[in-house]
Amino acid sequence: MAISPPARSTRRQFLKTTSTVGGSLIIMGTKATAGIRGANDRVRIAVAGLSGRGQSHIDGWSKAENVEIAYVIDPAANVLQSRLRGLEKRSEGKLATAGVADFREALDDKNLDAISVATPNHWHSLITIKAAQAGKHVYVEKPMSHDVAEGRVAVEAQKKYGVVVQHGTQRRSSAGIAGLHEALKSGELPRLKIAYGYCCKPRSGIGTKPAGRPPADLNWDLWKGPAVIDQYHGNYHPYNWHWFWETGNGDLNNQGTHQLDVARWAIDDDQTHPVRAMSIGGRFAWDDQGETPNTMFSFAEYPNGQMVFFNVRNVNYKGYQNQVFNEYYLEDGSVITGEGNYQIRRPGAKQAEKLKLSPGHVTPGGNWNSFISAVRAADPSMANGNVMDAHYGCVLGHLMNNSYRLGEPTPFNADAGKLLGNADAEDHFGRLHAIMRDGVGISDGSTQYQLGKHLTFDPTTERFTGDFADAANSLIKDDDRPGFEIPGLEAV
Prior knowledge:
By secondary structure, this protein is of the alpha+beta class. 28% of the residues lie in helices and 20% in strands. β2 and β3 form a beta hairpin.
């Protein structure tokens, strides 16, 4: 079902009428805003979601050559006006940017070429799908999807309408990372056994805030969008929505999406989704309102036997070790570490050595300019992190999260690792447990882990099978609020 038509925002302000230079753009192609001619190849883009990462989008597009930020979009009027003031100052008073609360107003502009999505996660797929239907190219922040099913709809929308969709996983623009993965898959290096990602950055608890009225400047109905939320509380806006299942996906599919995507990128190219996944973890020490785990170890196995391990560890403590990177365990016993520039510790070696590799193939220009190049060429294959890469990486995280969400309590001790059913996973979980016990100071037996279910998944149907399938399949698709439904595949 389509979302309801946009209501004109009473806070809408056009500081100046937007226009193209040298006349109207000439649009080529049949399905989408395609190759762009006229106005010296100017690309007109809208930025949706202006807090946090949205400011980075504004900065990125402002520095891109011959790109016009035609719209900035946010349901919080104060944030919207602040960003407009910043753009006006940057343009020395010659602002040609419209500020609107509702992204649908921007999509109605036939001369808009693309939209850049930095909203909360629960909006990512719906805006991507609606933009594709309107013939607009999409740069969408990670994760592209909030659940498995809506990610598949976004994929089908991109295929049908032929737009460029690029995921906000900037490491996809690294020729160094691409070079390592090409070497792993070409046989230049021993075969990959385990791709391991870490999202270990210190965070703090968010406390507990009571239900109440949203701020006067916030259009709460638009902010919620598809999310089914009973009442507002102050931890939803502007950032802590990450730690609630209705709106976010925890750090595994927040910061962790970058490292998850890199890990999945290393898996053989003929693999799509895992066939098995499991997680164990908890939300320790903070005693707050958040729902998602601050500590979690997860693993997933692909049909060819290759595995992805993942580690979330956010609770700060004296001596905390930041780990936001990837490791690669090879079948010959070698271990590769680094990001772009790598070291390899070979079996029996006392220390690692520098790994010399040729750069891999990416569209040049970094994440911002590579997208603009793909838009100008109307070539989705040029996207560094295309819609399929985005979908496969996000689903990997969704499966791990779903295992955790279906979990049951088990005592907090090292023996919990024996329940994982995999020797390598047990070893790496043991290292995480030791940090939580000895570093954070959580005593064995004083609390409980949430032990996730061993889930099996059919990569073709994108449905769970076997034990716990009914419960797991209930998490494949979130409920949507009326008026903001994700279209079904048949309605794309």
